[in-house]
Amino acid sequence: MPTPYEAHALYELREWQEEMLRYPSMFNALARKAQVKLNSFIPEKVHQAVTTAIKQMIRGVLFGAGYIAPKPMPQVGLELREAMVRERIKYYQHAGAAEGGVTGAGGILLGLVDFPLLLGLKLKLLYDVAAIYGYDVKDYRERVYLLHIFELAFSSQEHRRKVYRHIADWKTQKLTLPEDIDAFDWRSLQQEYRDYIDLAKMAQMVPLIGAPVGAVVNYRLISKLGKTAMNAYRLRWQAQGVLS
Question: Which of the ends of the chain has fewer CB neighbours closer than 10 A, N or C?
């Protein structure tokens, strides 16, 4: 029998699963169509440059040696783990809000600096969350799982459904992963991420309102990533029979 806390976590997980599998609304479909059309006007060289930039930034954090992977947390209950996860989310929310406020106050130039800084905070949050749930992020496959969590948080509804179905059977899917991380679909990741945050981040570069917008947007983006990560790992625990 699950504890009251575990029962509530399972309820939230089911709601999240329904959200991930929901078909795109008419508005979502129209917005997606418009974004795809807009992307078609951007020269291929620009797409390649942005893809390479995001790929290198993410690889530098997730697959480089510059960030020390936290040790997986030993056997403790879900409630204690998730209390710790919420504390880490709160820490990164405040760090992201402070960073967004500073860069937002600086206009376009500092607004451009915000992109890699915020990306680094998000990825480091995922490192911490994975370790708290007991997964060893030194394992290449666990880092790929982090990339899929990132996609679930910052993608169109259509792409989100595709990624969710992929990780729902992670026990099988991870056995088919290529050894070379370059085989990952970086183009889709960068386009989905960029399209998702473009509108909010453009407002951050507007004089006078940039600082408060930057703080609020960063806070909310990290909050969304944290919620997504929690449910993605609850999904893993459920598949392993630890949470049922």
Answer: N
If you ran DSSP here, which 8-state letter would residue 137 be given? T
Residue 154 to residue 224: CA distance in whole angstroms: 9
Tokens of 161: 């459904």
pTM above 0.90, yes or no: no
Residue 66 has pLDDT above 50, yes or no: no
Query: Considering the domain boundaries, does residue 244 fall inside one?
Result: no
Alpha-carbon dihedral 93, 99, 105, 111, rounded to 10 degrees: -110
User: What was the pLDDT predicted at 180?
Assistant: 72
Residues near 129 by Cβ (< 8 Å), separated by ≥ 6?
Answer: 85, 88, 89, 226, 229, 230, 233
Q: Is 158 within 8 Å of 74 (Cβ atoms)?
A: no
List C-alpha distances in Å: 93 to 126, 147, 222, 224: 13, 19, 6, 10
Domain of residue 95 covers 4-239
In a domain, 232, yes or no: yes
Is 113 inside any structural domain?
yes
- In angstroms, rounded to a whole number, what is the distance separating the alpha carbons of residues 154 and 200? 13
The whole-angstrom separation of Cα 8 and Cα 59 is 35
